[in-house]
């Protein structure tokens, strides 16, 4: 009996005076929720709700999505192009014409003095796919630098690389629908309830209908680990060892799908040789999971009717990220799960349109998953754009993580950053600051003029934000979804695609190539180029996508809708049509805790914020719920060091230091601390960020730190100053 039950205050929902709801896809994470933005009688966006009938979220939205309309009126927006001679001068307003004239003159000066690749471009996972395609056309077809990448290298490069090595192409094989059909789910380094809340809700819905085991592999006892049937608290960075040991057990006990392996895979010579070395007893000593548990989960996975794996940064952000992804693919191939309903792998992406950039930006190659290394692909795109095929380089240039060291060494002199904020997002901030200071010319193009990296820019270009323009995003499960233009950008801010098109006009070759005006005309070009490719979108149009509230690719011409999963026909993209089983030995090569720096430093996200808080840092409720950088610390370790709950401490690594509030919790083991990565001048002052040799993705999650006391008043002051960003 609950006393006073009849006297509860009635829930009141404020009437915001919505007269119309406009359709959009969420601009934060890669779940890709369909939203409706409420407009009042003055045409102002005043509310957000999940769109009913959308397959992804079925009327739901997480806290970030629910306040997304507040972005339109948020502080710090860029309203005019700004220019200055040096970073010590004050920015002056300038016109778009003179800003773009100045920019093209500087790019041409740098390229003629130091070579075509001395000007680099780094973009994002935040723009519309049509904008990525247009930027790729400008970069590859007009400016002609080969040092061009996206910040997606910081989050998904290992997944891309692992897919390419195993299957011959990028492209996540699975779908959210697989939760409804799987008999076993393994999640590697993914805190689904906090990072991808609506995918988690889909998983819970599936679990309510039908019970199946959830195995979470994570060094932290995350929210996801707390609801799992089995939690494997693995030693950071050693997932590859666990996966090799599972493969060892599966073959040793005859649990493999021999027909699938012989019909659809090819083996590298060393595949069996490598996994032979990973008996569970030896593996346990490295990965920290006992041998019997390794055997138990291997049997559970292999004997399930359909088994699937999901993963995020716990796998990708590692010096073994690409190998970890390929090892997950190995596991799914030897158990016959790739292409099976409820089986296979699904990498869960970070940014709303990280997939769009993978498919269409030409960062790692040419549009539609074409490669620079394939002569026919170079010819096909050159003919389509109307340029000489020899204008393209014959192999990919530097990734984002190699572009910064190339600035340091003087090889790159100019940089254009589009909707990315390396001063907060890159590892070892002190080094990035020095790097940016070396540039002869830095352009920052962003919706926000107060983004930290703009402190180092010579030219700032104000861009329209999210639904201030139209276009499409692709989500984690390859679903292309539409964003309507809901409101105008502030003052002189412009859609990124218009900036790219107008800049292209400053080159002779840019005037020769056609740059369509509207998003739907650009989409039509992409449709044509996609025909017959794995990421075929030729059966889609903006109208059809909107009608169906998102369509998964491949969706070839004439198809009513898209395919839920890839490789159902077991035809892989390697020339022999087979997937590769790769031998993946583990080499211990990362920083580890030692005497002077005795704690693992682990990093990740919180539900309230997105990436470097450029957007969520401006939303009142997000800041209210998650106002400050903090550190999770184990209470036993805290007692030994005399650290009290909710007091400030200084963390020190070999790179630098950071001040955070200590939050004591058993979520982290005794030798680990965890800090969210969203905050300026915080965790990335400490991280090392060694690179994966295949994907060039940094290992953000494996650094070593020590904890020192700090003056509490001084720390509070530092904290307040850093939060102004
Ligand atoms: Fe947006 Fe992701 Fe939240 Fe969905 S789960 S509303 S896509 S932030």
Keywords for this entry:
single chain, 725 residues, alpha/beta, 6-stranded mixed barrel, 26 strands, binds iron/sulfur cluster
Proportion of residues in β-strands: 15-25%
How is the main sheet built? 7 strands, mixed
- Tell me the span between the first and last alpha carbons: 49 Å
Rg over C-alpha atoms, rounded to the nearest angstrom: 25 Å
Bound compounds: iron/sulfur cluster
- Unreliable runs, pLDDT <50, ≥5 residues? none
Number of DSSP-assigned strands: 26
Mean pLDDT value: 94
Task: Kindly state the percentage of residues in helix.
Answer: 25-40%
Number of helices: 26
The secondary-structure class comes to alpha/beta
Cα shape: globular
Order of the strands making up the biggest sheet:
5-4-16-15-14-6-7
Characterise this structure.
The radius of gyration is 25 Å and the shape is globular. Helix content is 33%, strand content 17%. It is built from 26 helices and 26 strands. The chain has 725 residues and is α/β, with parallel strands linked by helices. The model has no long low-confidence stretch (mean pLDDT 94). Helix 4 (157-167) packs across helix 14 (321-334). A seven-stranded mixed sheet has the order 5-4-16-15-14-6-7, sandwiched between helices. It has a six-stranded mixed beta barrel with strand order 21-25-22-24-23-26. A five-stranded parallel sheet has the order 10-9-8-12-13. Strand 23 and strand 24 form a beta hairpin. Bound molecules: iron/sulfur cluster (SF4). Iron/sulfur cluster binds next to helix 1 and helix 6.
